[in-house]
Specification:
Structural class of chain B: mainly alpha
Strand order of the largest sheet of chain A: 6-7-8-3-9-10
CATH class of the largest domain in chain A: Alpha Beta
Order of helices and strands of chain B: HHHHEEHHHHHHH
Strand content of chain A: 25-35%
Strand order of the largest sheet of chain B: 1-2
Number of strands of chain A: 10
Shape of chain A: globular
CATH architecture of the largest domain in chain A: 3-Layer(aba) Sandwich
CATH superfamily of the largest domain in chain A: P-loop containing nucleotide triphosphate hydrolases
Oligomer: heterodimer
Helix content of chain B: over 70%
Low-confidence stretches of chain B: 288-292
Largest sheet of chain A: 6 strands, mixed
Strand content of chain B: under 5%
Largest interface: A-B, 28 and 20 residues
Largest sheet of chain B: 2 strands, antiparallel
Order of helices and strands of chain A: EEEHEEHEHHHHHEHEHEEHH
Structural class of chain A: alpha/beta
CATH topology of the largest domain in chain A: Rossmann fold
Mean pLDDT of chain A: 92
Radius of gyration of chain A: 17 Å
Helix content of chain A: 25-40%
Distance between the termini of chain A: 36 Å
Mean pLDDT of chain B: 90
Radius of gyration of chain B: 19 Å
């Protein structure tokens, strides 16, 4: 079986500075993989490289066996990678509904826009309530939901979420994780970047620890919890 | 009463004229963070192409304007592909493109100078006659300018709000990274924006030259005013720019009436300085977002 997402020897960065060095990673279809590790060690850059916002300098990226490493970001979206970026990056002057509709910008998604919209509203009912509100006036939790909802509007095969719990109150984090759990049972392949390793360890099928631009450790949540040396060295546990 | 009509008539005409050249600048800055310093030369190019189409090719006025719009749209595309696109990845894009477009403007102006000569020429698209309201003569030309400007603003608003292209332009202006993650090909958006801006510059150039005549460097003053309007509105804010343009046009008409023509630009600049001290990001601008 081919992996949903497969990276081999990928390096990337900004200017002369390499942030990701020779990274290889395989994520099986329908699983939830978590990228963990301390801040500033390349987790966000890795997602931005996969979605093409930062060009890969070396290596190959395969989506269900198809090479996507040399494509433009719009072609990568069309191929089926959905990236919900850190900090949501909503369109601030558009309403929630307009933001969601932007998610279905590509022709394939636009054809099923109405149906997707109903699915997103069913999953995130708060967005239906707020649909005519301008995005810049939303609360942090609502913004996060709008960001995730906008990503879901595109459909896609692999959903990448960059720090979905960042900056939210504990009760809102629980809601967001509830949504992710629901998405997971729908059979999607999900990649989550998460600072809080113990939180995601319960949920993820596989965890990958990124340290200084390379993977330092990979394993399951149970393995992580029984590895005190990893927890104390990287995750302050 | 007559004074009021007079001020309204000339102020709205000025404001409408400023508005369409400013909208083009605001669109380009909003999407690419690019200050297009060749905009003035594009205004002149539009005016001269219309003159050429109407006199040498014998086309009717509407066709003359259309040819000018196409020519300046193509010029905008060339500016994107030959100058802006190669520099986009650079860290200093804003400075580089600023300087590059100054150069492009100078080249364009000199081409116009070589082709049409340095002497002022009248724009053939010029209505004669006037409507009399009370004791005030309102030239048909002013009414035409106002009508065309309003039409252009409506067209731009419909384009931005009702079309797929417009949604892509707005998304790109509001968040470039997010736009790409929605599947928008932003390189194409940039090209479209520069073409639209060029076409608007052509219309603006034809209207300006119908009042003040054609000169190769005729675009300098209107471009400066368009920048002033953009800065006051908040760089990149299209609707704000249109509103501020009309307001400043009216204000200019009032200043001209009360203090005389020679003071209008100086007072305008004083107002700009005051606005920027009060609101550094412009009236409707938000603080600059840090790009990663």
């Amino acid at each position: 079986m081919t992996a949903a997402l497969e990276l081999a020897g990928v390096s990337s960065g900004y200017g002369a500075h390499l942030v990701i060095r020779d990274v290889s990673l395989s994520i099986a279809e329908g699983t939830l993989a978590a990228l963990i590790g301390p801040n500033g060690h390349g987790k966000t850059t890795l997602l931005r490289t996969i979605s093409g916002l930062v060009p890969a300098r070396t290596g190959s990226i395969l989506l269900h066996g198809q090479p996507i490493g040399r494509l433009r970001p719009d072609e990568i979206v069309a191929a089926g990678i959905i990236h919900v970026p850190q900090g949501d990056l909503l369109f601030p002057d558009m309403t929630v509904l307009e933001n969601l509709r932007m998610g279905a910008y590509l022709h394939d998604a636009a054809r099923v826009e109405q149906q997707r919209l109903e699915e997103v509203f069913a999953l995130l009912p708060k967005l239906k309530e707020r649909r005519n509100q301008v995005a810049s006036t939303l609360s942090g939790g609502e913004r996060r939901m709008a960001g995730i909802g906008r990503g879901l509007m595109a459909g896609g095969k692999v959903l990448m979420l960059d720090e979905p719990s960042l900056g939210l109150a504990p009760i809102v984090i629980d809601q967001i994780y509830g949504v992710i759990e629901t998405l997971r049972t729908s059979g999607r392949t999900i990649v989550i970047v998460e600072e809080n390793a113990t939180r995601i360890a319960e949920m993820a099928d596989a965890l990958h620890l990124l340290d200084n631009g390379s993977f330092a450790w990979s394993g399951t949540g149970a393995q992580l919890m029984s590895s005190p040396e990893i927890l104390s060295a990287y995750l302050g546990g | 009463m007559d004074v009021l009509v007079q001020i309204l008539s000339s102020g709205l005409t000025l404001g409408a004229m400023y508005a369409i050249s400013t909208i083009g600048l605001a669109l380009v800055y909003g999407s690419l963070n690019m200050l297009n310093m060749s905009h003035g030369a594009l205004l002149a190019l539009g005016g001269y192409v219309c003159l050429y189409a109407m006199t040498s090719l014998g086309l009717p006025a509407v066709a003359g304007v259309a040819v000018a719009m196409v020519a300046c749209g193509i010029a905008g595309l060339l500016i994107y592909y030959l100058a802006a696109r190669p520099m986009l990845a650079s860290r200093n894009f804003e400075t580089q493109i600023f300087i590059a477009t100054i150069g492009i403007g100078a080249v364009l102006e000199n081409i116009i100078l070589r082709t049409f000569g340095p002497q002022p020429v009248a724009q053939p698209l010029n209505l004669t006659g006037a409507v009399v309201v009370g004791g005030v003569h309102i030239p048909h030309q002013n009414i035409l300018i106002l009508a065309v400007s309003v039409l252009m603003m409506i067209v731009v608003a419909l384009l931005l709000n009702r079309t797929r292209t417009g949604r892509a332009i707005r998304a790109t202006a509001q968040n470039r990274d997010a736009a790409q993650l929605m599947g928008i090909r932003i390189g194409r958006v940039y090209a479209q924006v520069l073409a639209i801006s060029g076409a608007l510059a052509a219309v603006s150039g034809v209207m300006i030259s119908s009042l003040s005549g054609l000169l190769p460097n005729m675009g300098g003053d209107p471009m400066l005013k368009a920048f002033v309007i953009c800065v006051v509105a908040g760089l990149g804010n299209v609707y704000g720019a249109a509103g501020v343009a009309i307001a400043l046009g009216l204000l200019e008409a009032i200043i001209q009436y009360v203090f005389g023509v020679q003071y209008s630009f100086a007072i305008l600049l004083l107002i700009v300085i005051a606005v920027l001290i009060w609101r550094p990001a412009g009236l409707f601008g938000r603080a600059q977002v840090v790009r990663l």
